[in-house]
Write a structure and sequence with these properties.
Number of domains: 1
Order of helices and strands: HEEEHHEEEEEH
Distance between the termini: 29 Å
Length: 135
């Protein structure tokens, strides 16, 4: 749910956990336009599934809600556990342990938890919540 279009739309990005303004592209950063984009993305993906699956309006809306919840989970995990590094050259916060051809310093999260792991965990949590809700 990171708002990668902040400069395009002039919107501010906030850390989802404390609602403090943050830089564009920081894990856990959310904005109105980014959240809206996530909802539109969910609608497009779900709409493409209608070709193959008969969905009632209720299921369609539930799937959109699930997409929104997945985005929120992803943002929360991104800010809480995803590795964030500070470049020793330019002082930028990045998700890589190497920036400006130099090793970066871990400032938040866990070294082994990158964006791919956060994405996987987000899907796993969302699927688990769905499973719990139907049992």
């Amino acid at each position: 749910m990171v708002d990668r279009n902040r400069n395009l739309f002039g919107k501010k990005t906030y850390l989802i956990t404390i609602l403090r303004e943050t830089a564009k592209g920081v894990s856990g950063g959310v904005s109105f336009i980014g959240t809206f984009g996530g909802i539109i993305g969910s609608i497009l993906v779900i709409s493409s599934a209608i070709i193959f699956v008969d969905l009632s309006a209720q299921k369609f809306l539930l799937l959109i809600l699930a997409g929104l919840i997945g985005n929120i989970i992803d943002s929360i995990l991104g800010v809480l556990i995803q590795a964030q590094y500070k470049c020793t050259e330019c002082n930028t916060i990045v998700e890589l342990n190497n920036h400006c051809n130099l090793k970066t310093n871990l400032v938040r999260g866990f070294e082994l938890i990158n964006n791919d792991i956060v994405n996987f965990l987000s899907v796993l949590i969302l699927c688990s919540l769905y499973y719990i809700s139907i049992v």
